[in-house]
Amino acid sequence: VKRKILICGGGNGAHCLSALAASRENLDVNVLTLFQDEAERWTKLLEDNDLKISVTYNDGNESEIHSKPSIITKDPAKAVEGVDIVFLVVPAFAHAQYFTTMTPYLQPNTLIVGLPGQAGFEFQCRSMLGKKASTCTIASLESLPWACRILEFGKHVQILGFKESLGMSFLTGSECNLSFPVVETVQEILGEKPKIQVIQNYIAVNLMAKSIIHPPLLYGKWGDWDGTPVPEKPLFYQGVDDRQAELLSKVSDEVLATAKELAKLRNGCDMSEVIHIFDWYKIYYKDQVSDKSSLMMAMRTNKAYDGLVHPMTSTEDGKFVPDFTYRYISEDVPFGLVVMKGIAEIAGVETPTIDTIIAWAQKKLDKEYIVGWKLTGKDIASARAPQSYGLHTIDELFNM
Ligand code: NAD
Question: Model's pTM, two decimal places?
């Protein structure tokens, strides 16, 4: 059978998935991009050309794939028509716009996949789809399957590496009857790598999100900063000091304590995938990290992080100040740390380190999510915690 899928987005990941999926014979691929004039520009660029991916496989082999999606549009009616599966491949702050635009056109028995979902994806999707949510299945992958970047917009994208495996959870709506198996079908679309690992509990995927890494490192570096511009951009990971590593470790401890408490409160619920960030580095980057003696050293000696610097803007006299509007805060706090905090609050677990970091970050974002140690700030609706959608109890969390 030929299956019709929709890919939402126009960035690195959306280019990759569009080209990969369109190269498979049994797939018909639509693309919906709502950002600026991306749809128009991309359509024009592909009039006489195919979309090209240059792939470097993990064994060093290289290949090129040429293909073309059927349509690239900003019109949701056209994009969604006849589609079985919708992939959202955009940063988390852009998800809401796609849910709003697509919902009127979604047919029952559609699979909606967050690639990646990022923390709070299911809460937001359920809430924004309204009555239609129960007729859909909502899946979330823990990250993007590839390290990838656009070389030339609309025309050429590069895959620098495939993840070996990737966690995915899914919530089947009470009135949803998909005509295809979720895991096998998503696997077929992605290809052989990464191997999808099913995570039974969607809360575990939320607590595994790697959005916990950037905010403590930023707070550790700039929390006491007096505003004086610095002569160069500091290294983000290779420059990690004891205090930053300790803050990250404590955030991870608090997330882990939340997972353990939930497992206790919901007898039998499996939270074993939620592991400490130091253990995760040792497993996930086993070949890239040369010194595994501490979390600080693991981060400082991770080859995958070579040369990455703090997000900074330059001043008139050629110096630098931190850019607190960058994704490391604007995505990773409302769509990351605040979600973990929300789940912890419901589990009754105290999170003093997470609270301190959110309190600092929300000032930089000019938002109020947390008041003291409770998520009762006036801007909580613009984040993705369970509380943002009126979920306040363990039962509400688990019976979504
Ligand atoms: P990207 O930065 O390439 O996404 C940019 C695209 O997002 C734009 O082209 C546009 O379509 C959309 N967009 C940007 N600003 C928008 C706005 N204000 N309103 C509406 N749409 C807007 O993102 P990506 O690299 O494809 O990554 C997607 C997700 O995957 C992110 O959450 C990222 O953190 C994660 N991720 C990426 C990589 C990677 O290698 N690129 C690796 C791991 C995880």
Answer: 0.94
